[in-house]
């Protein structure tokens, strides 16, 4: 017996206030609240159906069969909630450079959470969908919603979920992603953040600082103050990466081209263009700017980078079903 197949689409998000460290590894409960912007350009489409003839979950990513062990652990959560024992067929197409610091896991697990829960016959409220997506990847909790989103850390499984801050934003802002390296990171986000939590002497100060950053950026978003939003996001990102260099053993996601982009953004800003950078766990740089300035910034980047490396995104929507059959 085969269930109906549901296909969901979820977009990535870029954290402006970072989450970097878990207080519960199994439940994926973060040490601090975070805030992100969901982007329209990068997304994942995932199709799920349950098939009683299967002896284990089957998972295809970009048309290639993958080891399904990690996906199966997530699907076990779905089966437990839905009181199912049937294995699933899962097909996912990633329109994001995977594992290179562009939050592909966020869109992947948000799409999987919706498609799998629907295929299992569940009708989850978005808060519960956010909680479920979190169990696959922390940042996926935020990709359930569009626009500006806050992930509330909570204290347990029930209280840790994301909420929309300004979902259908009319703010004409832009995010330029400079893709420096699409390859798999040498140090995964999970390993990196755990090393920081366990060894960085500055971690307690990071938590306190992030709480202040979150309060001030929410106010700046409400005021439509791009200069303040950008400055807070940039400083928050650099504080996160400074933690990595203070860990033992220390590590960095930066590459030489990463530093070049940071310097160029600082140069453009000195010339009067309002633009700021942020980076997640990877070498790729995201530049926050107004849509009006994006062409000028792209022209300057094109001097050193191929056009294929420069991707432009705007505020994007939350997770949604795109088909069922």
TrEMBL record:
<protein>
    <recommendedName>
        <fullName>diphosphomevalonate decarboxylase</fullName>
        <ecNumber>4.1.1.33</ecNumber>
    </recommendedName>
</protein>
<dbReference type="InterPro" id="IPR036554">
    <property type="entry name" value="GHMP_kinase_C_sf"/>
</dbReference>
<dbReference type="Pfam" id="PF22700">
    <property type="entry name" value="MVD-like_N"/>
</dbReference>
<dbReference type="InterPro" id="IPR014721">
    <property type="entry name" value="Ribsml_uS5_D2-typ_fold_subgr"/>
</dbReference>
<dbReference type="InterPro" id="IPR005935">
    <property type="entry name" value="Mev_decarb"/>
</dbReference>
<feature type="domain" description="Diphosphomevalonate decarboxylase-like N-terminal">
    <location>
        <begin position="10"/>
        <end position="162"/>
    </location>
</feature>
<dbReference type="Pfam" id="PF18376">
    <property type="entry name" value="MDD_C"/>
</dbReference>
<dbReference type="GO" id="GO:0005524">
    <property type="term" value="F:ATP binding"/>
</dbReference>
<keyword id="KW-0443">Lipid metabolism</keyword>
<keyword id="KW-0444">Lipid biosynthesis</keyword>
<dbReference type="InterPro" id="IPR053859">
    <property type="entry name" value="MVD-like_N"/>
</dbReference>
<keyword id="KW-0456">Lyase</keyword>
<dbReference type="InterPro" id="IPR020568">
    <property type="entry name" value="Ribosomal_Su5_D2-typ_SF"/>
</dbReference>
<dbReference type="GO" id="GO:0019287">
    <property type="term" value="P:isopentenyl diphosphate biosynthetic process, mevalonate pathway"/>
</dbReference>
<keyword id="KW-0067">ATP-binding</keyword>
<dbReference type="InterPro" id="IPR029765">
    <property type="entry name" value="Mev_diP_decarb"/>
</dbReference>
<keyword id="KW-0547">Nucleotide-binding</keyword>
<dbReference type="GO" id="GO:0005829">
    <property type="term" value="C:cytosol"/>
</dbReference>
<feature type="domain" description="Mvd1 C-terminal">
    <location>
        <begin position="176"/>
        <end position="308"/>
    </location>
</feature>
<dbReference type="InterPro" id="IPR041431">
    <property type="entry name" value="Mvd1_C"/>
</dbReference>
<dbReference type="GO" id="GO:0004163">
    <property type="term" value="F:diphosphomevalonate decarboxylase activity"/>
</dbReference>
<comment type="similarity">
    <text>Belongs to the diphosphomevalonate decarboxylase family.</text>
</comment>
């Amino acid at each position: 017996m085969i269930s109906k197949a549901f296909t969901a689409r979820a977009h990535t998000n870029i954290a402006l206030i970072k989450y970097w460290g878990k207080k519960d590894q199994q439940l994926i409960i973060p040490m601090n609240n975070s805030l992100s912007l969901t982007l329209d350009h990068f997304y994942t489409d995932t199709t799920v159906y349950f098939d009683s003839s299967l002896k284990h979950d089957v998972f295809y990513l970009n048309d290639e069969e993958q080891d399904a062990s990690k996906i199966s652990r997530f699907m076990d959560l779905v089966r437990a909630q839905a009181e199912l024992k049937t294995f699933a067929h899962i097909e996912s197409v990633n329109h994001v450079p995977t594992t290179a610091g562009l939050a592909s896991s966020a869109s992947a697990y948000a799409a999987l959470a919706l498609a799998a829960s629907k295929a299992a016959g569940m009708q989850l409220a978005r808060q519960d969908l956010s909680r479920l997506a979190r169990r696959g990847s922390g940042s996926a909790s935020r990709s359930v919603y569009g626009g500006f989103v806050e992930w509330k850390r909570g204290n347990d499984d029930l209280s840790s979920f994301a909420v929309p801050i300004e979902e259908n934003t009319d703010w004409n802002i832009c995010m330029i992603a400079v893709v420096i390296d699409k390859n798999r990171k040498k140090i995964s986000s999970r390993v990196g953040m755990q090393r920081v939590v366990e060894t960085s002497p500055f971690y307690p100060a990071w938590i306190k600082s992030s709480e202040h950053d979150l309060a001030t950026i929410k106010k700046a978003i409400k005021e439509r103050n791009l200069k303040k939003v950008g400055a807070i996001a940039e400083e928050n990102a650099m504080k996160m990466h400074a933690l990595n260099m203070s860990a033992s053993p220390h590590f960095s996601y930066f590459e030489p081209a990463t530093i070049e982009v940071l310097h160029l953004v600082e140069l453009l800003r000195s010339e009067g263009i309002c633009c700021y950078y942020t980076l997640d766990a990877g070498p790729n740089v995201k530049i926050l700017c107004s849509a009006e300035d994006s062409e000028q910034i792209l022209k300057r980047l094109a001097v050193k980078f191929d056009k294929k490396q420069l991707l432009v995104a705007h505020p994007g929507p939350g997770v949604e079903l795109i088909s069922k059959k």
